[in-house]
Write a structure and sequence with these properties.
2% strand; mainly alpha; Peroxidase_pln; binds 2-acetamido-2-deoxy-beta-D-glucopyranose; Peroxidase, domain 1; binds protoporphyrin IX containing FE; globular; Peroxidase, domain 2; oxidoreductase
């Protein structure tokens, strides 16, 4: 009996110590060490996104890809070294652009306060500011992330959800990262901005069952919309260069029309279409489109904060990279 009590106390103390040692993200982490950091980043995004609006989408997506592999630690930005291919060399990531943009933001922040602000936090902040710049909501981004030193292509291939996934697989992928069904529904709403290459969804137009030939389209895609895409956009099954707006008509505006498109069976990917194959997810989407825009703004922001906290490195873990593409020399 007494021994069990001792064991219990030891376990509790160990848990408290582990909890205490693990620093957390918090809003305003740089308010003393680099008070201008968030403003420098926001000003740069607000000034440049109007000239290159496509960058907003890629910055938002880059933060997502970063967080899903080794946590939000800017491993997605690391260059290949020696024989090691990095996350950015994985196929799903080759369509991520905007590294030059992040490098320029980082240089400005380094000039103000050298060695203080992590690339991982810059990714989280530029993602938020990109949403603001495209007309979406703003929110406070908890900061204090540290940068990782490892980036491995295969991990990106294994852990970033594929556009061919069904609802069960998508939910598993999100649950693997401590996100839930609501996070899956709201974060998919990011597809309200940006583009896709034809080869991210081409089998839905030409070769859904593998039989190929006329008529082998995905029945869950609006047939008129599919015909239009075949005629005007993805004219061959092997086109890997043409880009298609994911939310046609408002692909530069962060709004609810992506969800309206999904309800009309006009989501581009199977992963978009999958969201209405689950009753709870579909009910969430219906709630969003039938509510004032503030509803989606709030739930999206909340899920972004959750995503931004996946497996983060804090305190003395990792490092503050000097250049986002390479680890520091010691
Ligand atoms: C739910 C699982 C998801 C899948 C399967 C998925 C898949 C994809 C694919 C295949 C593309 C097109 C890439 C290309 O062909 O160039 C894309 C684009 C995009 N994704 Fe997702 N995505 C998912 C979730 C997310 C999340 C959580 C976010 C951010 C919070 C996000 C943000 C974006 C954005 C903004 C683009 C447009 C990129 C651009 O215009 O360059 N996606 N996604
Ligand atoms: C990272 O790789 C890119 C593309 O290969 C190259 O242009 C860039 O100079 C590299 N960055 C650094 C800091 O080595
Ligand atoms: C989803 O895909 C997996 C893997 O292909 C498959 O085993 C499963 O049956 C599918 N689930 C549904 C509901 O279609
Ligand atoms: C989820 O994690 C498990 C265990 O690590 C892994 O085997 C599985 O492939 C993951 N599923 C997805 C969809 O990422
Ligand atoms: C259709 O898909 C099957 C199976 O994935 C593949 O073997 C075939 O080459 C594809 N056909 C075309 C025209 O892409
Ligand atoms: C696109 O397809 C062409 C022709 O099939 C191929 O040569 C090229 O490597 C592909 N490009 C990419 C980025 O996959
Ligand atoms: C250019 C390139 O390699 N694009 C790939 C991006 O990732 C998707 C899957 O997510 C592939 O289908 C593309 O071929």
């Amino acid at each position: 009996m007494a021994r069990m009590a001792v064991v219990a106390v030891v376990v509790v103390v160990a848990a408290v110590l582990a909890g205490g040692a693990r620093a957390q993200l918090r809003e305003g982490f740089y308010e003393h060490s680099c008070p201008q950091a968030e403003k420098i980043i926001k000003d740069y995004v607000m000034e440049h996104i109007p000239h290159v609006p496509s960058i907003a989408a890629t910055l938002l997506r880059t933060h997502f890809h970063d967080c899903f592999v080794r946590g939000c630690d800017a491993s997605v930005l690391l260059n290949a070294t020696g024989g090691n291919e990095a996350e950015r060399d994985a196929a799903p990531n080759q369509t991520l652009r905007g590294n030059g943009f992040i490098d320029r933001v980082k240089a400005l922040v380094e000039k103000e306060c050298p060695g203080v602000v992590s690339c991982a936090d810059i990714l989280a902040l530029t993602a938020r500011d990109s949403v603001v710049a495209t007309g979406g909501p703003s929110w406070s981004v908890p900061t204090g992330r540290r940068d990782g030193t490892v980036s491995i292509k295969q991990e990106a291939l294994d852990q970033i959800p594929a556009p061919t996934m069904n609802f069960t697989e998508l939910l598993q992928s999100f649950q693997n990262k401590s996100l839930d069904l609501a996070d899956l529904v709201w974060l998919s709403g990011a597809h309200t901005i940006g583009i896709a290459h034809c080869n991210s969804f081409t089998e839905r137009l030409y070769n859904f069952t593998g039989r190929g030939g006329p008529g082998d389209a995905d029945p869950s895609l609006d047939p008129l919309y599919a015909a239009n895409l075949r005629r005007t956009k993805c004219k061959t099954p092997t086109d890997n260069t043409t880009i298609v707006e994911m939310d046609p008509g408002s692909f530069r505006t962060f709004d609810l029309s992506y969800y309206r498109g999904v309800l009309k069976r006009r989501g581009l990917f199977q992963s978009d279409a999958a969201l209405i194959t689950d009753a709870a997810a579909k009910a969430d989407i219906l709630t969003a489109v039938n509510s004032p825009p503030e509803f989606f703004s709030q739930v999206f922001a909340r899920s972004m904060v959750k995503m931004g906290a996946i497996e983060v490195k804090t305190g003395s873990e990792g490092e503050i990279r000097k250049h986002c593409a390479i680890v520091n020399k010691h």
